[in-house]
Specification:
Blueprint: H1 2-20, H2 26-33, H3 38-55, H4 59-71, H5 74-113, E1 118-120, E2 125-127, H6 132-138, H7 147-151
Antiparallel strand pairs: 1-2
Helix pairs in contact: 1-3, 2-5, 3-4
Length: about 160
């Protein structure tokens, strides 16, 4: 039983949008309803436009809707539908990229909290956390800070020489 009530509510919203919109074109309607099926979207637009025309009491709104109804053609519907499909695809891709970035950030944050080696599954990058003494062993060949230099630094970060 809730479904007919939902359809009635959606129809009222669509009619309200049609009468209050400054540009109630098929493309704007597809954006508003986030249409997914072409035939249903066309039928829904035409029936909503017809009902809005019948219920409209304001002369300016009626004239605007009549002008739109007069200018409607199959090619206009098709062009608007194709543009909507491109926009919808772009929205889907952007959403997917954002979600991937969020997932990646979440995984990196989680990996950063784990001690030791962890293999990152998405890109197979080896992420390691090293102890300072491990880094010193790797840097013995250059003029980098040696173990004795680190031993001279107090816990508060100030050298004994200062």
């Amino acid at each position: 039983m809730p479904k007919p009530q939902r359809n009635s509510t959606m129809r009222k919203q669509n009619i309200g949008w049609m009468t209050n919109s400054c540009n109630p074109t098929p493309l704007e309607f597809f954006r508003f309803t986030f249409s997914t099926h072409q035939v249903r979207a066309f039928e829904k637009y035409q029936s909503t436009l017809q009902i809005a025309l019948e219920r409209s009491k304001d002369q300016a709104i009626t004239e605007k809707l009549q002008k739109i109804q007069k200018d409607l053609s199959e090619t206009r519907f098709q062009q608007d539908w194709e543009q909507w499909m491109q926009e919808k695809t772009t929205l889907s891709i952007c959403h997917s990229v954002c979600q991937t970035n969020l997932d990646l950030y979440e995984e990196i944050s989680f990996v950063g909290k784990k001690p030791g080696k962890v293999k990152y599954s998405r890109t197979d990058v080896q992420i390691t956390k090293q102890k300072p003494s491990d880094a010193i062993q790797q840097n013995k060949s250059g003029n980098d800070t040696g173990e004795e230099d680190i031993n001279e630094v107090n816990e508060d970060g100030i050298s004994d020489d200062d």
